[in-house]
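ok so I'm stuck.
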Amino acid sequence: MSYYNLLLAISKTLGDSFYVLHEENYLKNIQDLQSAFHKQYNKVIIGYSYKTNYIPKLCQIAKQNGIYAEVVSEMELELALKLGYNFDKIIFNGPLKKEKDIEKALLGNSIINLDSYSELDSVENIVKKYPSKTFKVGLRINMSLVNKDGESAIQEGLDVGRFGFDTTNAEFLNAINRLNNLGVVINALHGHTSSSDRSLKNFETITKTLCNVRNHYNLNNIKYFNIGGGYFGPMPKGLINQTTPTFEDYATTIFNQLKTDAWFTENQPYVILEPGVSVVSNALSFVSKIMDIKKIRNKNFLLIEGGVYNIKPTFHKINLPFQLISKETKTTNNNENFDVVGSTCMEKDLVLNNVSINNPSVNDFIQINNVGGYTIVKTPNFINYVPAIISINTENVYNIIRHRQTINDLIATYVLN
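replied:
not stuck anymore, here's the structure
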């Protein structure tokens, strides 16, 4: 069966748009990341970032390959537990942790990184509830990142990020003393900081800052240096106008810095990575049938079911790699430029901007690749049903990973009078 006929058969069952999961890409990315860092150091823990894409199948693949679950909310914590994770293989981060969840995570020996003084209050309440137990927590450290032009490299160009503890404030020492007085062990420092450029310089800064905080405050019980995520992964050629660092580049940069620190060299703590986009971007494609083609004032528009929320919910301007899948091989080159647009009622529902396509026809399919980061978790119920997710094996047999949403799914959580 041709790929077109396979997609046509799928569309007749699951609708005119759907995602295709590439499990082999995801697994390879994880293994390549592990290999790159283990060449430098053998005590590396990888925690897959659930917030980036929590398709249960991907989370299960991670679990089967010794990857921890990195979660940042009550919902994600419950999902990890539902998928069979034990608490001691869960890294619990995020700015809003409910006290009941902090309690469960502490009792289960999760790696938990506090983000604020209000969470420290919760820890104090829990210690009072269990006076005979010794608890261990990590602290997320607020970072300042500067790019090559001397400007802030924090995501969105923010001068000051909102996450973690400000170590330049005297109150931070009070927090350490408070935990010490409670008998709580500080066993981790967490440095994840989302950046706009994902540069090696950022990771040098993060690593150096964690070492400096450890040394300045004599935190001798640190078991985990958590570098966080924000790496480039495998990048399609020409997608952005720069050469991006490899996993090996990140590993070399991080450990070149760590190995200059005497305490790190002597005590050999674990190093934690929390990849998301870098391992999952090329693990998902979006496929949609071409529903209509029209021209308005010399501008060509190609309409698909679904739209920008399915492809790039952050509304970035990059044209992702794509391919046209037609019933018949195109024998002539008749390329024209098209805006590929979605089926919502927004003018800004622009999926691909002014791209060259050879003689597309209604009922052809367009496959847009590298859509694994944040699409599934940020796709709203906006105008269209949430699409199915399938995987295709080497024999061109497809398996359903998620069913297409139905009207009953849509209204199931509402109270109807």
